[in-house]
Every structure is written in C-alpha cells, then in structure tokens.
Model the fold of this input.
Amino acid sequence: MMAGQRGFTLMEMLIAVAITAVIGLGVWQVLNGVINARDRVNEVAGEFAALQRTMLLFERDMNQVINRPARDIYGDVQPALTSRSEPANLLLTRQGWRNPLGQRRSELQRVAWEYDGNALVRSYWPALDQGQEDNRRQTQVLEGLMTFKLRFLDSNRQWQDNWPVQEPSAGAEAPALPAGMELTIEHDRFGTLERLFVLTDFDAEKAQASLSRNVKDGSSDSSSDSSSNSSSDSPADDEALVPVNGQ
Done:
C-alpha cells in the first residue's frame, strides 16, 4: 500500500451520511405529500360522485312520479306521494321500472327516501301494494349529510312543509300531486345544495282515454277523406267533362 493513499476520516463519513439522510428525508416528504394529495383528491372525487349519483336517482324518481296510491303493510291506503309516512321522509309511486328479464311484475314501483341524521337511504318494494311482511330493499346512497329538507308547492303556488297538506281521511279521494317540490340538503364537505323539481299529475286512465280519443278522431278523418276522394272520382263527374254533340 502506497504511503500517500488514505481513506475517509470519521468526520467525513458522518457528514456524508448526514447529507444523504437529509436528501432522503426531503424526498420522502415530497413523496408523502403527493400520496396524501392523491388520496384526498380520490376521497373528494368519490364523495362528489356519490352526491351526483344521489341527485340523479332522486331526479329520476321525481320525473317518473305517478298518482297511484298504494297499500302499506297494515292494509291502509297511502297517497301516491306523501311526506307523512314515518320513518320515511318521502314515500312515492313511480313508473318506468325497467324489466329486462321479463318478470311477472308491475312497472310501477313504491320508493321511499329516508334521512337517518347522517346518511340518506333509498328503499323500494318488489310489489306496489305491500303484504304483511316488510320486504323492502334498502341502499345507502349518500353519507355526510347534516340536513335534509323538503318543501312542496301546492296548486295556489304556496309552499307547504308537508304533503298532503292535511292528513288524508279513510275513504277520501286521493290527493293530487304537488305542482313542484324543493329539495335542500347540507353536506359536510360541499355545503348547502338546493334543487327544484316540477311534478306532473299524470293520470293513466285520462292519458289512455285521450289516446283512444285521438286515435278515433284520426280514423274518422281518414274515413271522411276517403269518402271525399271516392265522390270526386265518381262516373258522374267524368260524364260532366264529356262534350255533348261535339261541343
């Protein structure tokens, strides 16, 4: 070994280790910050997607509301749309329940929305008129709610806190649907959100009668047009166009 060669001193090694440790700590902090930011973004994105999905489900239910009362598990007739059926905040009948498997069931569906103080739960029943067993299917659609409030617009354009405005009595005529509804929720991350929905008092019997009347009127018009065309093409009209005595 040559006399002029020598290794690192202890102080130099300690300084090198310290520099390496500082660089590693800085890299770890940067990487940890990136991972935490990604996790927060994914968390917010997931909550926002759940909020969008919930509002879409609620909007679909409102757009498909139909004025068809239904019986509860006690056999009592409940209005087609009501906010007086505890524990549900909103109970309604909707149409357009898809049936891709062709099962023997109605396309009408009984749906309930319930707020438990923190989460929003959507329920539905396989049969429109319930039996003696409560066979509802529940799904928690949104968490982190601080408030959930509904208001209903009556035919006089006045807002009501409950619907029907008065408790329905036995044997009374089914109340009409409200003209509109306002939904207000307060989310712990996204704050207060409001949505307005316009409701149509759809009556299946009236719609069918109107459709049948339109079809009947269309058939009558077609018959009248056919009669007119037959009359204009009659031999009498052709004879009137033939010259008499060559004139």
